[in-house]
Design goal:
The complex is a heterodimer of chains A (about 280) and B (about 550). By secondary structure, chain A is an alpha/beta fold. Chain A is built from ten helices and eight strands. Classes of the chains: A alpha/beta (about 280), B alpha/beta (about 550).
Chain lengths: ~280, ~550
């Protein structure tokens, strides 16, 4: 099984996107082979930015839309056909700046989609401006004297937005990414993996993170406690946790708004005479 | 009497809209045609609102704008709208002198609530019109069900009061029209979409489109659809696009401010060739504007919203009735041509209510150019008509690459100049196909004397009042349904057989007139504009056309 395409991958050598690309590829290929995923039911969405080309590199259904709008697009697909496995790739600009509203709403609703965030704390494709996750003082092209804003913490944000599977990955740990992607894809409900993905050209943070990250899975941490998860998400210093911060099992949005129907398979035209009679 | 206009004036919270609807129901039950126009301000309490219930033996498509009977629960509201009365109008205010009725007192005596005042008015009205009280009782019972008792009691109190005080009588005989559904333009837009297979409706609350969402949400189980209230209009449009991509016919609805927000998504649907129906129930702009009043000032907006160039279709129903067919067809066009289609209505059509007698049983099958399974699927396959075969995720051996970045036939990103030209020309070809196909579509209506030498051209809601106006004037009425692609040859043909051209539209700059002039290369002789947020009244419009004809 090879879900790659013949399109030449156009990311900088050493870009963290490669780690995400190959970890995801391995997970999907493995699960299609074992029958746990159905190839034609997988839909990938990618946002705007360097990562956005990723949908060109997989031979899977895809939709490359506009900046920031990956979550509502994914939600629309799941409402139409809940047999789809919908996975959204997006950048930190996509989901924490332009489309932050949408990612919070999707988390809150528990839409059954998976979001993989290529979080490099910089706008790469527009040549190096700060993003909502860049540290204060970050010198980018739009902030030559240093970023005046304090960064947001996506993990805390997603937990308090009631996302039901919230994880952080690191592009320097592909094996662990595979573990997280697999868990996220098979989680029933909203899942997000915020992947620290250094931008080798505009914000190379490999060394910074390599020294600091540790896997939550190697500790006694239990991701089923909301308050503990919020507390854990705030840990950011000499030690930076990666792994699953929070998970919870609850009903999905699509089921609630759609009832029993699957609109892709059921396209009946209902009788409207009863309603009209009542209106008479 | 062949016709009667009843005004019901009150503050927000006094049940004016609901009351007007129930009074309409009474006369619908009694065999009359109904048209109800609600004039209300954007507030939950207070304000000076009224609804006009027009009751007629023949079908009417607009309010009359003159009260035969004016119920007003407060004197200031009656005074504010005294220009809607004449010397024959019967005024019924809160009080005990003359033809007044002590609404407040009767509510207190019967332990009712302010919101039930219209039921008293209904009782009074039934006395005046000599309608047997049991018709009132039946109407209230079917409308209010478990809350009927108190309303019937109040109606009876009103009836008895009018009887005791010997109110003047305006006899309305039992008439013969069958009981037609009494529906709003938004409800017909909803039902039209459903008849054409719509499965997902997305919207963010906004007047005057909210009742479209409310109706579809309320009836979602019976209509087998999902009606979704999203976080904003951006999400509404994008969610509808996601649903359509996955194979569920979808529609989003809003008013002008929401269209502004949907702009990027409309461009997305155009560039990625996704079927998307967008309803714009216009209101008076710019910005927040006059949110509960009507205007046709989004014409240029829907013709141009969304950056870049892509094919689009814009359809404007002229009456409440037409909303059904136009929306159903919008759905069909969207799915055949795989591009955004607008249904351009306005507050006057969207929120007014009317008895309608249309072909609800008509079938609107969704035409889809499906991928036939031969060869490798390419989402943007070049074809003779510019329309690429469609396939959805979940279909075996199909990989659908939909791409907002300029793309190859297979849907892969490509900015090579030859590819950019190829895809632009593909979309141009599709626009050309739409234009040619539309020659055979129902894109205009011509009413009145076909031999009349002068023509009145309009689009959208002024059609309602104009249908009445032209009965007494030597003109024909040309109503344009398809704004884009504009039916140039058909309109020119009518113009070629006309001397003077008068345009009627509800905005301050004459957007429609400019469009007609640009498309047909004919000067409009007289532009009739109205921009006070209130719909054209037939009488007022007739005078203005008469002036233009001098």
């Amino acid at each position: 099984m090879n879900i790659g395409t013949d399109k030449k991958i156009q990311w900088c050598p050493g870009c963290g996107n490669y780690a995400i690309y190959s970890a995801f590829k391995n997970v999907v290929e493995r699960n299609i082979e074992s029958g746990k995923l159905i190839k034609e039911n997988i839909v990938l969405i990618s946002g705007i930015g360097c990562h956005g080309y990723i949908t060109n590199y997989y031979d899977l259904n895809s939709f490359h839309p506009i900046h920031g709008r990956v979550p509502p697009l994914a939600t629309g697909m799941k409402i139409a056909n809940d047999l789809l496995t919908v996975i959204g790739f997006a950048g930190d600009g996509d989901v924490y700046a332009e489309g932050m509203n949408h990612i919070i709403q999707a988390a809150r609703r528990n839409t059954d989609i998976t979001m993989i965030v290529h979080d490099n704390s910089v706008y790469g494709l527009t040549t190096g401006q700060f993003t909502p996750t860049s540290p204060k003082g970050f010198k980018g092209r739009s902030t030559p004297f240093g970023n005046p804003e304090r960064p947001l913490n996506p993990i805390t944000l997603m937990i308090v937005s009631r996302g039901t599977f919230v994880a952080r990955g690191f592009a320097g740990d592909v094996k662990h990414l595979e573990y997280l992607f697999e868990r996220a894809i098979f989680h029933k409900g909203f899942s997000i993996v915020d992947v620290i993905q250094p931008c080798v050209t505009f914000n190379n943070t490999y060394d910074f993170f390599r020294k600091r990250v540790y896997r939550l899975e190697d500790t006694e941490y239990d991701p089923h406690n909301f308050e503990k998860a919020v507390e854990k998400s705030l840990e950011w210093g000499d030690k930076i946790p990666i792994g699953v911060f929070y998970e919870e099992d609850t009903e999905t949005y699509e089921k609630l708004v759609r009832g029993y129907e699957n609109f892709f398979y059921n396209r009946d035209i209902p009788d409207i005479t009863e309603i009209l009679t009542e209106k008479s | 009497m062949d016709e009667l206009s009843v005004f019901l004036g009150g503050q927000a919270g006094e049940g004016v809209k609901r009351g007007a609807f129930v009074i309409g129901k009474l006369f619908n039950r009694y065999g009359y045609h109904i048209f109800i126009m609600d004039d209300y301000v954007s507030t939950i309490r207070g304000g000076q609102d009224y609804s006009e219930i027009r009751i007629s033996k023949k079908e009417v498509f607009s309010q009359k704008g003159v009260a035969d009977i004016f119920f007003s629960f407060h004197r200031d509201i009656f005074e504010r709208y005294s220009n809607k009365t004449n010397s024959n109008s019967v005024a019924i205010l809160d009080g005990e002198s003359g033809t007044n009725v002590p609404f407040d007192k009767l509510i207190k005596e019967n332990a009712g609530a302010s919101v039930m005042k219209p039921s008293i008015a209904m009782g009074v009205l039934s006395y005046i019109c000599e309608i047997p009280f049991e018709v009132v009782q039946k109407t209230l019972e079917s409308e209010f069900r478990d809350k009927a008792e108190i309303n019937v009691k109040l109606a009876k109190a009103g009836f008895d009061y009018a009887s005791k005080k010997n109110f003047p009588r305006i006899r309305m005989e039992r008439w013969v029209k069958p009981q037609f559904p009494m529906v709003s333009g938004n409800e017909l837009t909803a039902l039209g979409a459903v008849r054409a297979g719509m499965k997902v409706y997305t919207a963010y609350p906004i007047t005057p489109a909210s009742t479209l969402l409310h109706f579809l949400a309320k009836e979602s189980k019976r209509l087998h659809i999902a009606a979704i209230h999203t976080e904003d209009e951006i999400s509404a449009a994008v969610m509808a696009i996601g649903a359509a991509y996955a194979g569920a016919p979808a529609m989003c609805g809003t008013s002008g401010p929401g269209i502004d927000l949907m702009g990027e998504a409309i461009s997305l649907a155009g560039g990625t060739e996704i079927p998307l129906v967008v309803v714009d129930a216009q209101r008076a702009g710019p910005t927040t504007g006059v949110p509960t009043y009507t205007e046709q000032s989004d014409l240029n907006l829907v013709l141009n919203v969304g950056h870049g160039e892509f094919p689009r279709i814009v359809l404007a129903p002229g009456t409440i009735d037409e909303s059904f067919d136009v929306t159903a067809r919008a759905m069909q066009y969207a799915w055949w041509y795989q591009t955004p289609v607008f249904v351009l209505s306005d507050k006057q059509i969207a929120e007014s209510t009317k008895t309608v007698n249309i072909q609800f049983g008509k079938k609107y099958p969704l035409p889809i150019k499906y991928f036939d399974g031969s060869g490798k699927y390419a989402r943007y396959r070049i074809t003779d008509d510019g329309i690429s075969p469609l396939a959805f995720p979940s279909m075996k051996d199909v990989v659908n690459h939909t791409n907002s970045t300029e793309h190859t036939e297979e849907g892969y990103s490509s900015s090579l100049p030859e590819n950019v030209i190829k895809m632009k020309e593909k979309r141009l070809k599709k626009a050309e196909t739409i234009k040619n196909d539309f020659l055979a579509e129902h894109t205009i209506n011509v009413f009145g004397d076909p031999d009349a030498k002068d023509v009145v051209i309009t689009f959208g809601s002024p059609t309602g009042a104009l249908l009445e106006v032209i009965e007494d004037l030597p003109v024909k009425l040309l109503q344009v349904i398809a704004i884009e692609p504009f039916p140039i040859s058909k309109v020119k043909n009518v113009f070629d057989h006309s001397e003077r051209i008068i345009s009627v539209e509800q905005n301050s700059t004459g957007q429609f007139a400019s469009l007609v002039e640009c498309k047909t290369e004919r000067r409009i002789d007289k532009k009739i504009l109205k921009y006070d947020g209130r719909p054209f009244d037939p009488f007022e419009l007739k005078e203005r056309i008469k002036e233009a004809l001098v």
